[in-house]
Amino acid sequence: MTTVIVMPGTGSDADFAARVFGSSVRDAGASLECLEPEPNLVGSYLTRIDAIADRGDRVIVGGVSIGAAIALAWACDPARSALCDGVLAALPPWTGRPDGSVAAQSAQITADSIDRDGLDATVAAMAASSPAWLGTELARSWRALYPRGLVTQLRAAATYVAPTLDDIARLPVPLGVAVAPDDPLHPAVVGRSWADAAPRSAVADTPLTEFGPDERLLGDACWAALASAGRR
Questions:
Q1: Distance (Å) of CA 42 to CA 8, 150, 168, 211
Q2: Would you call 176 helix, strand, or coil by DSSP?
């Protein structure tokens, strides 16, 4: 059986990743492993992906935002890609260094705010300036992750160097990308550039206003893109 390993975006958690990808993975007859972020954000993800892949299952790796970037980096590694059947990239955040990325800046600002003003004040400010569904979702995940190193996770994400377009050009497995044209933190141009660089890829659009209240639509779009890429 294929195991699909997914990672959440910055400040999000495994609960959200399961809601994004769960229905499409179940419909495909695969098993799902949703990784919870740890303070050693990148290293712990890579170690856990290795451990699951070493069990002998075929794997598909993926995630949302920073989770997608880490999954792509794992699959671009020639020593690991032989175990991999594809990459699910929902809302790619940036390519290469995060310089100028709104998503990276947001993670850094949030970490600074928590250190300066405390978690409760930061949650309240975020909720006041966000759509209701997003405010509710991040308030839940930030409170859940705070005792487990949320600030350290945010700072690690904000400085993460994602694969470059040259790296992606050597990706040996299909890449399915889901972009949201109305998401200012995850510009659709980034996801499209990932797809353009990959030898086998497809892109699906899903507006933030639609998948926000119904997150499975994001996972469904990403899975459909991967299936299309696999046929090319």
A1: 12, 13, 18, 26
A2: strand
